[in-house]
Every structure is written in structure tokens, then in C-alpha cells.
Design brief:
Pfam families: DUF5362 (PF17319). Keywords: Membrane, Transmembrane, Transmembrane helix. InterPro entries: DUF5362. The chain is an all-alpha fold. It has one domain. The protein has five helices and no strands. It is flat and about 70 Å long. The relative contact order is 0.11.
Length: 153
């Protein structure tokens, strides 16, 4: 039999070409734009969440149209909009970090900044992956509940 030698893993060294640096730089510019738009949208949602109760209280026709949400407390609407605003803030923050760290890594050849940018890319995709799985499970649960409700009725 042959002597079995232990395979010692060798360190993998990747080369970042000028073309790749150009792509990363373009990504950072788009990430900066999308993060700023996300921050603005998040702030608008949060501000709207706090103005909705005043709008409903000052307009009885609107309160009547909203039914139980408008006649009672509009706290549920406020909480939903506040959660949506905070929900939109996190991916915008990750995009902002990707933009700053990626740009610094590419322009100055800073490996640590590029590593941090890639870590934020991973976090961004993980966040959207978890949200996607949650939405898919929610749809199946909703479909199941509607089907069960129809079977009972």
C-alpha cells in the first residue's frame, strides 16, 4: 500500500485584478446611492408613523374609513410603520458600510477594509435570505389557514 500522506491545506491567495477593482468601485458607488435613498425612505416611514395618529384624530371621515383601527387607537398603524421604517434602516446601514469600506479597500489597497466590506455583503444577503424564507413560510401558512378555514365553513 502506498503511504498515505496527510494533505496539508495550502493557503489560497486570490488576485484582485484592475478589472475587479473597477467593478468593486462601481458597486460601492451604487451601494452609496441605494443606502442614502434607503435612509431617506426609512426616515420618511418613521416620521409618517408618528403623524398617522394625529391625522386620524383630526379627520373623523378618515377614522370612519379605517374602521376599528381608526375608531379605536391608531397605535397598531403607528407600530407597523415604525417597524417598517426600522426594518428598512438595517439593509441601508449595511449598504452604507459596504460602500465606505469597499471604496477604501479598493482605492487604498486596504485589505482589512475590503474584508469588512465583504463581511457586510454577507450580512446583507443573510438578512434578505432570512426575510425571504420568512415570507415564503408566511405565505404557505396563510394558504394553509385559508384552506382550513374554507374546509370548516
Amino acid at each position: 500500500m502506498e503511504d498515505l500522506e496527510e494533505d496539508v491545506p495550502q493557503e489560497v491567495k486570490l488576485v484582485v485584478t484592475e478589472e475587479m477593482r473597477s467593478y468593486i468601485y462601481d458597486i460601492t458607488r451604487w451601494a452609496k446611492f441605494l443606502s442614502i435613498v434607503g435612509f431617506v425612505f426609512s426616515v420618511i416611514l418613521i416620521l409618517v408613523s408618528f403623524t398617522i395618529p394625529a391625522m386620524i384624530a383630526s379627520n373623523p371621515v378618515l377614522a370612519k374609513q379605517l374602521g376599528s383601527l381608526g375608531q379605536g387607537s391608531s397605535t397598531a398603524i403607528t407600530i407597523i410603520y415604525l417597524i417598517l421604517g426600522l426594518f428598512y434602516f438595517y439593509p441601508s446601514l449595511l449598504l452604507f458600510r459596504i460602500s465606505n469600506n469597499g471604496k477604501q479597500g479598493v482605492l487604498f489597497g486596504n485589505q482589512e477594509s475590503l474584508n469588512t466590506a465583504m463581511q457586510n455583503v454577507k450580512s446583507l444577503f443573510k438578512f434578505w435570505g432570512i426575510i425571504t424564507i420568512t415570507v415564503i413560510v408566511g405565505y404557505f401558512l396563510l394558504l394553509f389557514l385559508v384552506g382550513a378555514g374554507l374546509a370548516v365553513a
